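A further point concerns the way the authors explain their paired sequence and structure data. Nothing conveys this as quickly as seeing an actual entry. An entry of this sort, consisting of the sequence and the corresponding backbone structure tokens, reads as follows:
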Amino acid sequence: MTTEPTGPSYRDRLMAGMAASLTQRTYRDTTIGEIVAHARTSRRTFYKEFSGLDDCYFALLRSVHSEILGMVANAVDMTADWRLQVRQAITAYFAGVQTHPAVIRSYVRELPSLGDPTVTLQSRPRDQFIALLVGLSDTASLRTADIAPVTVEMARFLVGGLEELTALVVEENRPVDDVVETAIIATTRLLGPAAG
């Protein structure tokens, strides 16, 4: 009798199975049977990788958020004009949202109702995004334009605004293009030399 091997590939397939299920139904209505069917694997493998449905869901959310933050970090040309850097960061962020609309929709709609363990899950990606924005704002291009690095408080404000626009597009099934320019204009005005 052969046993099914486990490893990162099965974990990734199971998270992809969860993501596929979220395109068809809410997290509350998702079952492990559906996930393993999408992943083309077994319940046994599922339980080798995850302790349960929540564990798989939270792992998927963390993975998607990490991917989006990576897209933002990689998109910004630190030597470009600061306005272009703002455009690159925001465009990359919403491209990430557009890549995973069902997962982001679930994060916005369902995660807050899941109880205490989600508090850390909600705050950790936000804190990581804040730290990324603070780091991205400390560039020669911004200093040349007489723009001070973004403070943690300002980054928190920016992230809150981006999250609200994200909620708007995913809840109303609108294209991200509806809000990208608004986010770019608002961020540029907030950061601009006159704002200082």
Summary: The domain at 1-50 is CATH 1.10.10 (Arc Repressor Mutant, subunit A). The radius of gyration is 19 Å. The longest helix spans residues 53-75. DSSP finds ten helices and no strands in the chain.
